[in-house]
Each structure stands twice: as structure tokens, then as C-alpha cells.
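Write out the 3D structure for:
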Amino acid sequence: MEKIVEIFINLFGGITNISYGKEILIFLISMMPILELRGGILAAALLNMDPKNSFIICLIGNIIVIPIALFFLELIFKLLRKIKFFDKIITKIENKCLSKREQLDKYGYLGLLLFVGIPLPGTGAWTGCFLASLLGMDKKKSAIAAMLGVLMAGIIMMILSFGILKNIF
């Protein structure tokens, strides 16, 4: 993940020269699938930003995507499936998400919270919400579980990025 974040910082690093540019960059990174809040906080640490402000910005950036993922991602994928190229990609994404369904089947909304909250590759708000949607879980309860999971992931990443990793580098 650190390499991907570094690539984004290098690609869009010019934005950091404008007023609030670093904040905009970590906000956008926090909204992106795969990177999400974890990548945003890591980017903030690499950019030597204030931990408290970074946490709030990244938290908001990642929470904003939850309703989009829960309410619209399935519809967007359904529309894109009509195009052969996208159908194959969406099938792979669905299969990848469904391969992680054990936790949600076993623990329900607590499983969703943990799935989103424990920062491991392939987990996060986008995947968790899409999986909850595929499994027909209640959207309001799923949104709350995902938001709490994002908060949990944020706290873990703050400790890792601004605590342990900051002291190593």
C-alpha cells in the first residue's frame, strides 16, 4: 500500500503546493477504492501533516463513499454489465467480494464492522459495502457498521502511520 500511496503523491504532488493542497490530496486518496482511509492516513504521515486534522479529513473522505457504495454501486455495475468488457471485470470484483463473505455470514453486522475496521488488503468500506449489498443486508445497519469500521481502521492506521512507522523513519 505504501508504494501505491507514494505513486499517488508523486503523480499528484503538485497539488500540495496550493493552499490546502495536502488536505485535498489525502481527502481524495481516502475516497478511492483500495487505498481508502488507510492510504489517506499513510499519505498524511508521508507528507508530515498534523495527525489530528489528517485523521478527520481522511475519516470524512472515506465515510462519504459508504452511501455511494451501498446504494449505487450495485446499480452502476448492473448498467456496466451490458458492456462485455466491463462484465468480465465486474464478475471478477463480485467473485473477489463474495470470497470474503464468511465473516459477514457468521457475524452479520459485527462481521461487517470488523471487515471494514481491520486494515488488511482487500478489506475496507468499498468492498464491505458492496458485499453487504450483494448479500442483501439492511443498508442503514450496514452503513452504521461500515462507518464504525472506518473509524476503527482510522484509529489503527493512526497508531501505525503516525506512531510506529513515524518513529522508524
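The longest helix spans residues 139-168.
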